[in-house]
Predict the structure.
Amino acid sequence: GAGVSQSPSNKVTEKGKDVELRCDPISGHTALYWYRQSLGQGLEFLIYFQGNSAPDKSGLPSDRFSAERTGGSVSTLTIQRTQQEDSAVYLCASSLGSSGHFTGELFFGEGSRLTVL
Amino acid sequence: AQKVTQAQTEISVVEKEDVTLDCVYETRDTTYYLFWYKQPPSGELVFLIRRNSFDEQNEISGRYSWNFQKSTSSFNFTITASQVVDSAVYFCALSAASTGTASKLTFGTGTRLQVTL
């Protein structure tokens, strides 16, 4: 597609269940990011993939959170044993990326709204 | 550590009024980038502008203008003759090489702008 595609757009789950959120970046973009937006909060960085390099996982809030990117394209963010505080909008973004200075911009998807009951 | 402060949580103006959104940043890096993103009700963040730390020239794009002042660590955004379509949440963001990757943005908490008729 022309933009960053995320699915599902909405997910309601029960506490303790695992969830998977998917991101399909813009074709040709080597960099992919996951951010979390909680009510009344800014965007919180979670994880960053750049090409074949090891991902920057410094923003993952706990070991219940993990992400992978297969074939340098689609990414899946997995939250295990969900908690109510995990309720948020999870935003994916992609960019052309660079090995040096960042000169590009991030293209965001519309997000996946997660509600943990 | 990087930090972006948007002290204005919500602003409400009447159409055709001018409005300025404030952004104050903190970084120890000498090379960094500043951004503004717009998040309309659809949820998808839209890139508005990028400015690098070596370019303090103010920029104007139609009804939008940006005032970058390193002396006060501010990067304010002004909308002239606001319109209802400007209603959105606006995020200021910062990226710097010391974050581990210059591509990782630190976002402020956003300012919700409501423009009414």
About this structure: The two ends of chain B are 41 Å apart (CA to CA). The interface with chain A takes residues 4, 6, 31, 33, 35, 37, 42-47, 50, 91, 93, 95, 97, 100-110 of chain B (CB under 8 Å). Chain B is about 0% helix and 50% strand. Chain B has a mean pLDDT of 91.
